[in-house]
Write a structure and sequence with these properties.
alpha/beta, 2-enoyl-CoA Hydratase, Chain A, domain 1, 2 domains, three-stranded antiparallel β-sheet, two-stranded parallel ribbon, 7 helices
Amino acid sequence: ASIGPSAGGSVYSPAMTDFVIMVEKAGTMFVTGPDVVKTVLGEEISFDDLGGAMTHGSKSGVAHFVAQNEYECMDYIKKLISFLPQNNSEEPPKITTDDDPNRLDHNLINVIPENPLQPYDMKDIINSIVDNHEFFEVHELFAPNVVVGFGRMDGQVVGIIANNPMHLAGALDIDSSNKAARF
């Protein structure tokens, strides 16, 4: 988690981890700061615009989650850990759920429009099929034409990758392809 400023060589480490959570208006990551950018390029740029949480969450894709504050950051960590095994030789945690795996969701009939040119939000479908309608999206702000994240089906953790017709008609581009491949 990036809860404060990070500059120089130390920013390479978070970028190579599985998940990065940054706190908005607090966490920053950049190799070279705004002063050097101004000296070398003659351009003024703020810490947040250069390497803030929203920049890394929506443009570079380095941040998988952007939290509003430290408490939300800890909530993201807890939620993420609930989907992951303790190590690579274990299975992800399975939970008992009251959600019937054979339930019918009659709202699904209305999600996909009859007109094939009309977009729809793939997240509506995902939320309908996962246990308790709880989908934990990863990289929500980055390359929204592909949706990635975790859910559960019959208590078992599943990873979900899906094109999202609501953005760029779900077409794959470089960012969305990298997002899906990294997940």
